[in-house]
Design brief:
Blueprint lengths: L3 E6 L3 H12 L4 E7 L3 H7 L9 E2 L1 H7 L2 E4 L6 H10 L3 E4 L9 H10 L2 E2 L9 H8 L3 E10 L8 H6 L10 E7 H7 L5 H9 L7 E6 L6 E9 L3 E8 L11 H14 L7
Helix pairs in contact: 1-10, 3-4, 4-5, 8-9
Length: 269
Amino acid sequence: MIALRVGIAGFGTIGGEIARRLDAGVAGLSLVAVATRDYHKARTGMSDFATPAPVVNLAALAEVADAVVECAPAHVFADIAEPVLTSGRILLPLSVGALLDRPDLIELAARTGGRIVVPTGALLGLDAVRAAAEGKIDEVRIITRKPLGGLAGAPYLEAEGIDLTGLEEPRLVFDGNARDGARGFPANVNVAAALSLAGIGPDRTRLEIWADPSLDRNVHTVVVEADSARLTMTIENLPSAANPRTGRITALSAIAALRGLVSPLKVGS
C-alpha cells in the first residue's frame, strides 16, 4: 500500500506531538514535511526522529503532501488552507474556529476536489450530533469550563477588560453563540466551532465559557435537543503541560483522523 503523505503546518505542542507519532510509525501514513516559522526549533525537535522531515514554507506543503494537518496560530489559517485546497489536497484543520468566517474555503474545496476533514479534537459525540442533524435539532449548547491559565491571552478578555488575576470563584466570562466565541477565544474554543459545524451552525449553537480556579483540566458539557434523541455529554480533558490552552487529546485526535483516511476499517460516521 502506498502511504498517504502527511504534512504538518505548525510545530508547537500539537504539531510536534503529531510529528513524533508519525515518525514512530502509523500504518499507511508517512510524514513528508513540516512548516513552521522557527526552523531551528523544528530541527531541534526532530533531532531524535528516525527520519526527520524536511522543514519547508507553508505554500510548499501542498506540493509534497496529500494531507496537511493545520495546527498553527489562527491568523495564518488562510495561508495554510488556500494552497492545500487549491491543489485538491486534504486539509485537517485544528484551528477550526477560523473556518467559520471563511465559507469560501468550502466552496474552493468543492471546485478543486479538495477535502476539509475536521478532527474531533477535544470534544466527544460529534458522530451523534451529525446523525441527529440528519433529522431535526432544536437546540445545541456547550458549556466550557477552563482553568485560569487556559484562557490567558484571549482577545475577548482583553477587549472587555476582564482580569482573572486572583479569581477565587468560577466566573462566567462569555455567553453567546459559537461564531462570536470563536472570534473572541481563537485558541480556546475550537471545540464549539467543530460542534456547530456538526450540528445547526455557529449562529444557533450556544456557548458559555467559565473561568474556574478550582479546575486542573478543561471540561466541556454538550447538550443537544433533537427529534431523534436528547444528548448530554461531558468530557474532562487534561491540558498539555507545555500549553494549558490545549488538551492532550487534541494531537491524538488528529492521528485518529489521519488513520481513518487510510484504514480498511473506520469506526464511526
